[in-house]
Write a structure and sequence with these properties.
Layout (H helix, E strand, L loop, with lengths): L6 H14 L10 E2 L2 E2 L4 H4 L8 E5 L5 H9 L4 E5 L3 H13 L4 E4 L13 E5 L8 H11 L5 E7 L8 H9 L5 E8 L2 E7 L1
Parallel strand pairs: 3-4, 3-6, 4-5, 6-7
Antiparallel strand pairs: 1-2, 7-9, 8-9
Helix pairs in contact: 1-4
Length: 193
């Protein structure tokens, strides 16, 4: 059920995004507009706070932020995108479709995350050579009782959850893994501080 968005606005937004950056699937993924149905967001709602302030770090075209936000009651949505091309493409569409998202064009590590209830990431640091600095930034700066949803798409030869598990072990006693779901094409982990 789409609580926050009128379904037509949501669908038309992704039709416009598809027109700008069509991303055909070559592995049979089912797409919901621009979103591959890769992660079971419906299954994790019970672990998420109500009336949440949500940030997607590395939001791209906001597809996962909107999908997650559509399942929550009264969320406040923020997207942080470093890539100016993505930001410049999505920003006018968010305005045109009157979507309640505040966009920030800045480096993830410069964005103050201390006020968010939910922090969502989809592999933005998998190409970063310093994954530990990235996870440390999130785990040190997220507020108490906040949750971090970390999603990965598996790449050939990748050690699937090792980096997340290492981050959790470094902060033993401060964070807890609430949820983990590993599927053929990805991993979804929820960490609570």
């Amino acid at each position: 059920m789409l609580h926050l968005f009128k379904k037509q606005n949501y669908i038309s937004f992704f039709q416009d995004v598809d027109a700008i950056h069509a991303m055909p699937t070559d592995n049979g993924d089912e797409w919901y507009g621009y979103i591959p149905k890769q992660y079971p967001f419906e299954d994790i709602i019970e672990h998420l706070p109500a009336n949440a302030k949500v940030v997607d770090l590395g939001c791209g075209f906001c597809e996962n932020l909107l999908y997650l936000g559509s399942l929550l009651e009264n969320p406040e949505l923020h997207g942080v995108e470093f890539n100016s091309d993505y930001y410049n493409d999505v920003s006018p569409l968010v305005t045109e479709h009157n979507l309640p998202i505040t966009l920030h064009n800045e480096n993830i590590l410069n964005h103050d995350i201390s006020s968010y209830d939910i922090i969502y990431t989809f592999c933005p640091a998998k190409t970063d050579t310093n994954y530990q600095a990235y996870t440390d930034y999130i785990l040190q700066n997220m507020k108490d009782d906040a949750v971090w949803i970390e999603a990965h798409k598996y790449c050939p030869g990748e050690e699937n959850s090792e980096t997340v598990d290492n981050a959790i072990s470094r902060y033993s006693g401060e964070v807890t893994k609430l949820y983990e779901d590993s599927e053929d094409n990805g991993l979804l982990v929820i960490i609570k501080k």
